[in-house]
Amino acid sequence: MITAPFYPGHLAMMPTSIPPGAVMAFAGKVTDHYVQFESMINSYGWMLCDGRTLAQSDYPVLYAVLGDQYNTAEVKDDAFCIPDYRGYFLRMADMGSGRDPDAGSRKLANNSVSSEVGSIQEDALQIHQHAYLKTGELNDPKGKNEQGKPVPTGSAFTSDPVDGTGSPGSVRTSTETRAKNVYVYYIIKFV
Prior knowledge:
Elements: H1 10-13, E1 23-26, H2 34-43, E2 46-48, E3 53-55, H3 60-66, E4 79-81, E5 130-135, E6 152-158, E7 185-189
Antiparallel strand pairs: 1-7, 2-7, 3-4, 5-6
């Protein structure tokens, strides 16, 4: 087996295994002792993806990777923003695959339309309908048979998110459409 010679400066010349601008999920606690957390992850070369504004001169490598991609309209000359991933699911860029049919309506932090990395897509519910049976009237003005049950007379459609096939209480409704999810912190490598 042939090995490369080792000398003290060898590690300093080796590239790090994680490039600046890489983002990863962090499952540790942040909110209890934020100052200690920030100091700890900074010592490893990471910071929270919270949209903060940084000076280009203080973080030249990260700025070279991100550029002005995440800047809001308020950012000054020698500054840039890091991604703000709070409350978002991450999705890989479509890159012409056609898997994101609305790629052309995505927006960057400064509200310009773009399908580049860092572009945002707001939540939405795909257009759909649910079939259900309408109750009929027959000769009974209440629309019920002799057992008091509704009489089906045909089908109709509704755009309401109603699921008649599940057991009672199985449909969850909320203020957003979402998959099952778990909270993590996204952190970005800055060196």
